[in-house]
Amino acid sequence: MNQPHLRDTQTSQALRDITEALGAIMPETSKSGIDVEIGKRIARFSNLDKPYSRTLIHLVRSGNKKPSPSFAHAVMAFAYSLDDMDPIRARSKPVQVNAAGKVQAGSIVLADSKPCAYPPCAIPFVPRVPWQIYHSPDCGIKNRKIIKRGGNK
Ligand SMILES: [Zn+2]
Fold first, then answer.
1. Spacing, Cα 141 to ligand 1 middle (Å)
2. Alpha carbon distance, N-terminus to C-terminus of the chain
């Protein structure tokens, strides 16, 4: 308390607001998981290649570490962006995929993946239409041959 130079109450408060907002959006995520996510998202506002550590997030939020100016700036930019953040976008998370169609990096994929219904394939894919069960026409042809022969024996 008697070390005011360690404190940046505006950044600490913004981090508490961000923590609360992300906690509401990602209720299944642990507290440390939320801090990891905050570190990733704040880093996007400061042109950093790697995320800020969850330890740094924790220390600045609790007022036990004075943030660098670039960190403080990135926190405020993120806090302001939260006010008009699209909830679907906020809930989305990056995953690696193998795109066969034209999928732009960073796209929001709204559909769920499912495994190909041809058992030897079973590769997960995001269907073009909800009723699609095979990842390719070839898997459909092969599976229908198995079914004709009387099942997978
Ligand atoms: Zn398949």
1. 10
2. 73
